[in-house]
Design goal:
- The chain is mainly β.
- The protein is built from three helices and 48 strands.
- The chain folds into three domains: 293 residues, TolB, C-terminal domain (Neuraminidase); 133 residues; 113 residues, Thrombin, subunit H, CATH 2.40.10.
- It is globular.
Length: 580
C-alpha cells in the first residue's frame, strides 16, 4: 500500500471529523514574486483599503517586492497603493475591521483599521515572523527574540500582557476556544496556551512526517475548531483538532522537484481560509505562487513523482561549509549532514552523519556548519538541542573513494544549554549558533540569540565574545577578512563590517556595493563568504545574484563580477542563500 494511503487511513481515525481532512486543488496563481503571506479580508475592509470591487478578497504579501497585493477577478495580483512603503511584509492577519501586517524589515506590526493606521512593537520587536489577533489582543511570533509576545491594545501603551519563550517561533493563531497556538520551527512542534495565551501550555508534535509529526512548521491558521499548519519541510498543510491537538489529516502532495504544482505543495509558508471556510490559499514563496484549494472531499491521491526528464531535486538546505577538499551540506528533510570530497569531479559523497533524534550524533535542527581547514574535521551546530559538535572525516586517498558509513566520527561535543562566559555568568538565552567561521586557530560562532560572536579554540575551549553592532537586527551569516568580520543583516538590508577583538564596538554599515556603473543597493542579502585571496562574496536572494568583490587586504565592496540571474542552469540562481 502506498505511503499516502496509509497516512490517509491513519488520519481517518484521529481527531474531530468536522475539520476538512482533505482538500482539492482549485487554481494556481503564478508569478507572485516572493509570495509569503496570505489573508482574506471582508468587503468593508476591502473598501477601507481602497480596493475596487465588492465582496471578500484575497491579499498576498511579498517579501521580495515589499508589497501587499490583492487578487482581482481575473486572478491577477494588483498592488494596493495604501500599503506602500512596507519593509519585508512577511505575514498578515485580519478580522472584519482591521488588517495587521508583520514587517520583518522594520521590526513592527502595522495595523490598518478603517481610515486609521498605526504601528505596534517598534523598539521591542526584532524580527517578527507571524501575527494574529483576537479582540484587543495581538500575538506576535518573533524568531529573532525567540519569543511570542501578546500585546493588549486596550491596555495603557499597548502593554505586553504575556510572553512565551521558544527557540524559533514562526507561527501564531487564536482559536474560537480561547487558546493561543504557536509553532516552533526549530523544535518541530506546536504549543497551545489556554486563556488567550495567558494560561497553561500544552505541547504537540516532534520531528517527522507521520501523523502528529512536523518538520519546521511555519504559519498557523485557526477556524471552526481546527488548526491548519503550514508544515514547511513536509510540503503539506496539516490539520489539527483544536480541542485535543490530534492530527486529523493533511492536504497537498509533496512537489518532488521545483515548479511542480497543481495540488503539489513545495515549501508552504502560510495558509488562510476565506470567511465560509470553503477555499484555502497557500503561499509558496520559493515557487513565487499561491495555490487555492477547495476544502473537503476525499483524499487526493497522486504519487507526485512526475518529475520530467532532466529535473533536479533541490533539497539541500541553507547550511553549508567547505575547507580544503571537504564540503559539508545539510539535507533538511532528513536532518542529515552530507560530506563530499571536492577533489573528485563531480564531488564524491564520502560520508553522511546525523539525522533527527535525541541520541549523540543526531541533529533535529542543524543551524550551522563549519570545516576546519586542512584538518579533516567539521563542526555542526544544532539549535534544537543546543549543541556544538566537532567531527572528524579522514579520507584515505591511497584507495579508491567510496561511501563509508563509519567514515565520520564524533570527537567533541559542547552542551550550549550549560554554557557560561569566562566570568562564570550565564547568557540571557541559550546560544543559537546560526553560522560558523573557522581559521587555523579559532572557531568563531555567530550567536543570534545573544547577539554575539563567540570565539572558541579548535578544542571547543571558550575564549571570548565579540558583541554585534547594537543596530543589527538579524545576523544570519558572517565571514572574516583580515582583522574584520562581515555580517549579513537581511532585515536591515545591509552588511556590518568591523568588530575585530580589539575594537568590538567599531562597525560600519554597508547598504550598497560599488561598480563602474554606480552603486548597487542590497535588497535581501543572505549569504557572505571570503575567497582564499580575501575577496568578499555576497549573495542577494531578492536579486537572484551573487557579487564577487575585488580582493583587498581590507574588506572591499567594489564589485569585480556579478554572477547569476533567476533560473536553474549553471550560474543561475533561485533565491540564493548561503555562501561558503
Amino acid at each position: 500500500m502506498a505511503l499516502v494511503s496509509i497516512l490517509s487511513l491513519v488520519s481517518a481515525f484521529l481527531g474531530a471529523q468536522d475539520c476538512p481532512a482533505h482538500a482539492q486543488p482549485l487554481r494556481q496563481l503564478d508569478r507572485i514574486d516572493g509570495a509569503v503571506g496570505t489573508t482574506w479580508i471582508s468587503a468593508d475592509l476591502r473598501s477601507a483599503l481602497g480596493i475596487e470591487g465588492s465582496g471578500e478578497v484575497l491579499l498576498v504579501s511579498s517579501g521580495e517586492t515589499n508589497t501587499v497585493q490583492w487578487i482581482d477577478d481575473k486572478n491577477v495580483a494588483q498592488k494596493i497603493e495604501r500599503l506602500a512603503n512596507l519593509q519585508w511584509p512577511i505575514a498578515m492577519a485580519s478580522d472584519e475591521e482591521a488588517l495587521l501586517v508583520a514587517e520583518r524589515g522594520a521590526g513592527r506590526i502595522s495595523i490598518y483599521h478603517g481610515s486609521t493606521q498605526f504601528t505596534l512593537g517598534e523598539g521591542v520587536l526584532r524580527t517578527p515572523s507571524a501575527v494574529a489577533a483576537s479582540g484587543t489582543l495581538v500575538a506576535v511570533a518573533d524568531d529573532g527574540l525567540g519569543e511570542v509576545l501578546i500585546f493588549d491594545l486596550a491596555a495603557p501603551n499597548n502593554a505586553i500582557v504575556a510572553r512565551h519563550s521558544g527557540t524559533r517561533p514562526t507561527g501564531v493563531a487564536f482559536d474560537e476556544l480561547g487558546n493561543l497556538w504557536w509553532s516552533d520551527a526549530a523544535q518541530h512542534r506546536l504549543h497551545c496556551v489556554a486563556d488567550l495565551g495567558r494560561g497553561a501550555t500544552k505541547h504537540f508534535g516532534e520531528r517527522g512526517s507521520f501523523p502528529g509529526q512536523y518538520t519546521e512548521p511555519r504559519a498557523l491558521f485557526a477556524r471552526g475548531g481546527c488548526v491548519f499548519v503550514a508544515d514547511h519541510l513536509n510540503h503539506r498543510i496539516a490539520i489539527v483538532d483544536a480541542k485535543s491537538g490530534a492530527f486529523i489529516g493533511y492536504w497537498g502532495m509533496h512537489a518532488v522537484v521545483p515548479r511542480q504544482g497543481d495540488g503539489r505543495i513545495h515549501y508552504p509558508d502560510s495558509i488562510a481560509l476565506n470567511h465560509d471556510g470553503s477555499i484555502a490559499a497557500i503561499a509558496e514563496g520559493f515557487e513565487d505562487r499561491v495555490q487555492l484549494f477547495t476544502t473537503g472531499g476525499d483524499a487526493w491521491v497522486d504519487d507526485g513523482l512526475g518529475s520530467g526528464k532532466g529535473a533536479v531535486s533541490s533539497h539541500f538546505g541553507s547550511e553549508s561549509a567547505c575547507g580544503g577538499d571537504l564540503l559539508a551540506l545539510h539535507e533538511p528533510e532528513t536532518g542529515a549532514v552530507i560530506l563530499f570530497d571536492t577533489a573528485s569531479v563531480p564531488p564524491y559523497n564520502v560520508a553522511t552523519v546525523g539525522a533527527s533524534g535525541a541520541s549523540p550524533g543526531r541533529y533535529p535542527s542543524v543551524s550551522a556548519l563549519g570545516v576546519l581547514p586542512g584538518m579533516s574535521k567539521f563542526v555542526i551546530a544544532d539549535e534544537s538541542r543546543g549543541l556544538l559538535d566537532i567531527w572528524s572525516c579522514a579520507i584515505d586517498r591511497t584507495k579508491p573513494l567510496f561511501w563509508d558509513a563509519f567514515g565520520a566520527r564524533l570527537m567533541r561535543s559542547l552542551d550550549l544549554t550549560k554554557f557560561r562566559y569566562d566570568d562564570g555568568s550565564k547568557p540571557a538565552r541559550v546560544p543559537r549558533i546560526v553560522d560558523i567561521h573557522i581559521d587555523s586557530a579559532w572557531i568563531y560562532a555567530l550567536d543570534a540569540a545573544n547577539r554575539d560572536i563567540l570565539v572558541f579554540a579548535n578544542t571547543l575551549a571558550y575564549s571570548l565574545r565579540i558583541p554585534l553592532p547594537k543596530d543589527a537586527r538579524e545576523a544570519v551569516e558572517f565571514c572574516r577578512i583580515g582583522e574584520e568580520f562581515v555580517i549579513v543583516d537581511p532585515a536591515s538590508a545591509c552588511l556590518w563590517v568591523g568588530g575585530d577583538s580589539r575594537n568590538g564596538d567599531q562597525w560600519r554599515k554597508v547598504t550598497a556595493l560599488h561598480s563602474d556603473d554606480g552603486e548597487i543597493p542590497l535588497v535581501r542579502p543572505m549569504g557572505v563568504c571570503a575567497t582564499a585571496s580575501g575577496a568578499l562574496v555576497v549573495s542577494d536572494s531578492a536579486r537572484d545574484q551573487a557579487f564577487l568583490c575585488a580582493p583587498s587586504s581590507a574588506t572591499s565592496t567594489t564589485i569585480a563580477r556579478v554572477i547569476g540571474e533567476r533560473g536553474e542552469l549553471d550560474e543561475q540562481f533561485w533565491l540564493p542563500l548561503s555562501c561558503a
